[in-house]
Each structure stands twice: as structure tokens, then as C-alpha cells.
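user: Please supply your own:

assistant:
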Amino acid sequence: MSRQNCPHQLLSAGICALILLNGCTTQIIRPESQRLAETLLIRAIRAEHKGDVKQAEALLKESLAVSTSIEDSYAKAMAYINLARLYRSGNHLAQASDNIDAALTFLDPGSAIYAEAAHEKALILFMTNSAEIAQQWAEKSVTNEKGRLLGRQLNLLGRIQLARNDLRSSVITLQKGLAENHSSGNTEEEANSLRMLGIIARKENILTNAERLLTEALEIDKRMAVSTKIAMDLEELSKTALAAGNVASAVRYLERAYDVHLSANRIRQASATKEELAKIFSQQGNAEKADSARKTALELSNKVGIQQSNTPSDTIKPSNRP
């Protein structure tokens, strides 16, 4: 089974490894409970992919219960990793932390999914502003990666190094990640490598190189049709154009990013983009355009507030684990 045939990556940690370890062919007949736990995981992935977070959570917990009933430590760890990932994606970081710690109790560095667990642990720590410890876990994920995801692990390490302003180390790490992602055909992660290298080039004031790298990332993301990353690339290109003194290009990139966000119903991000446009217009002395952009940003911000007030507070229920 190739990586491309794995289900949606957000919740696919270890699925391929589990299937490979347990046998992909009909020559090996696995116990019914193992097959059920695996099926529940795959259904959870599909539910998340459709945006049904509550269903994904329920299925993952059911998979965990089945795995626990037969003391299948590997499957339990995988369910915990995926619960951690689901909670992190919803910004429920305390629950994410509890679940990834639970997963790690069942794994040692020799496990096929230890690197994935370490990667998730690093991401959660990074989001809780514990960058130094996050880097240690990211390094573990790189050291213990045994599959085709080394470029992804290197990207996270490079991202953390970049956030810590260790540009020299970050460039070295991300260049390795870029080579790994390109050779393994991990196109989306290749774009991530390019984007971060572009950001570093801008920080180092190598603006022509920054624009080239970010444009390459944008081309890949457009080919992959990853809307969030397309908007991110456009925003970074805008910053680069602004650093080069090309205000007109900076505005055009931001207007494109705004259209992408708004069309994808990312209202909060669309509002933030309009705020950035307002700042540029204000700095250029164009009060009329600045006021118009701020007005749109405020309208969108109010819309976000209305959406939040209509959202149930239990979209992701607390974990039942102590």
C-alpha cells in the first residue's frame, strides 16, 4: 500500500503501518476485533475529512475501546495519536496533550509509529509556546523516522528552529527536508519546505531568492489545490514585495489572498487580510481605501462573532481519561 493510498493525513497516523504490519493480503486472516478497530479508525478519518468532528471523535474513542478490550497496545497508541491530532486541530491543546502522552506510554523508539507520536508531541508543545522542548521532540521524530516521512519531520524541526530565530540551522534542516520531500514525492511537504526557505531568504534580505522560492511553493499548492496554503503563499509574497518596496504588487497579492480566504469561508482570515490592506493603504496616504478596507474587516469580524455565538460549546467533548 503506497502512501498516496493512505486516507486523509490529518488522522492517518500509523494507519498504513498498522495495515502493513498486520498484513494487506488475504493470505493473513486477522482477528475480528483487530479488523473492527482498524475499520473504526478509517471511518473516523473519513468523518474528519467531511468536517464531522464529533463523529470522528466518537469513532476514534470506539476504536480505542475495542483496542483496549483486546490489549492491542499498538492500535491503542494509534487511536490516542489520532485523538491528539483531532483535538489539536480544534485548538483543544490540554486534551491533545493528554492523549499524545497516553500514546507515548505504549511506544518505544523502535515502534513503527514512534516518530509520528514524537512529531505530534512536538507540534502540541510548539502550539503551547514551549519551543525549546518542542524542538527536542522534533529531533526525536527525525531520528526515529523509518519510513518515507523524513522530509515532513525535517520540516517541523526547521519550522521550530525558524520560530526560535535560529536561521542558520533552519536553512540546513529545511534544505534536507526539501530534498527528502522531492525524492519521496511528498509534494505538499515540498511546498512547505520552499515556503519556509522563502521566509528565511526574506529575513536575510535576499528578496529575489525569497520571491522565487515562494512562487515555487505557490505553484505546487495551486497544483495540489490546497486553499489554505495558497493563501499563505500569497500573504508571504505580499510581505516580500513590500520589503522590496513594491507596494502595488504587495496589494495585489493580499487582494488575491483575501479572495481565496473569503471564497473558502475562512472569514476570520479574510478579515485579517483586509486589516493588512488597510495598514498599507494608510501608510500610502490613501485614507479612502484604508477606511473601506477597515469597514470590510469590521463587518467580517462581526460575522465571525455571530458564527461563534451560534456554535455549540461541545463540538469536541472532553476526553474521558483522567
In short: The longest helix spans residues 287-309. The CA atoms of residues 199 and 236 lie 7 Å apart. Confidence is low (pLDDT under 50) at residues 1-10, 17-27, 309-322.
